[in-house]
Design a protein that fits this description.
The longest helix has 26 residues. It contains 4 helices and no strands. α3 runs antiparallel to α4. The protein is mainly α and about 110 residues long.
Length: about 110
């Protein structure tokens, strides 16, 4: 392809809403990056996750707690007990599985 048939590159510009300009400027200053580096990081690097790192950390901790809880409920299911207790334990197990699945989704993993 010669230069005459190549389409010109798009020039990107972005202007934040006037009412949020102070917020944007503070975020850029806090990051210590240039405007272009900040925008690149926001658009390209942070697009993989819409959840802040602390949320992922909390989700990971909760997942760590759910494993032993599930193990304990599994032991109780096989222990001698009445029918009502079995039903309640199965409901608890199902709820824990739902929480587990939601946390895996937060972390971007398959439940």
């Amino acid at each position: 392809m010669d230069e005459k048939t190549t389409a010109p590159r798009t020039k990107y510009t972005w202007k934040p809403p006037v009412e949020r300009l102070d917020e944007v400027e503070a975020l850029i200053a806090e990051s210590g990056l240039s405007f272009n580096a900040f925008m690149t990081q926001c658009v390209l690097e942070n697009r993989r996750s819409s959840y802040p790192p602390i949320l992922k950390e909390i989700a990971g901790q909760l997942l760590a707690f759910l494993g032993p809880i599930r193990d304990h409920t599994r032991c109780l299911e096989t222990a001698p007990h009445d029918d009502q207790r079995v039903i309640i334990l199965l409901q608890i197990r199902d709820l824990l599985l739902e929480i587990r699945a939601a946390l895996f989704l937060i972390l971007g993993r398959k439940p």
